[in-house]
Every structure is written in C-alpha cells, then in structure tokens.
Model the fold of this input.
Amino acid sequence: MLSVGLVVDDAIVMVENVERHLHLGQPPLRAAMDAARELVGPIIAMTITLAAVYTPVASRVDSRASLSANLLSRGRLQVIISGVVALTLSP
Done:
C-alpha cells in the first residue's frame, strides 16, 4: 500500500508544478519543460533513496522473509517506474 502512494506522489508533484507555471502565464510546452527541469533532481534523489531503503530489507535471509522479499522487490520496482513516469509522461 505504501508503494501505491509513492507512485502517485511523484506524478502529483510534477502536475502541480506544471500547473503553477501555467498560472504564471507560460505556454504549455514551456511550462512543462520548466517544471520538469526544476523537479528532475528531487525526483531522481527520492527515487534512488526509496529504492535503496527497500534493498536491505528485501535481502534478509530467513524462512519467513521470502514472501516479504518478493513484495519489497516489487515495491522497489514500482518506485523506480514511478520516478520514470513522473519525469517523462506527467509533464
């Protein structure tokens, strides 16, 4: 459930930033470019950080951890895909 919120969060931040630039009077293409340029660093940093948080937990080895490792690996993949979508499709 946490990864679903994180996936949506990146796109929402990008769309809100584009909207802010549109309210400042910029044309749509320029607003999208400026918004993406402003957020590329923070979104990449947040994506790497969240993926790094999932990695040590997913690599635990014991009998109860196999299911959670699978779920955490999927969560890590969802966070990475979310960052890519926020930077490419959302603007």
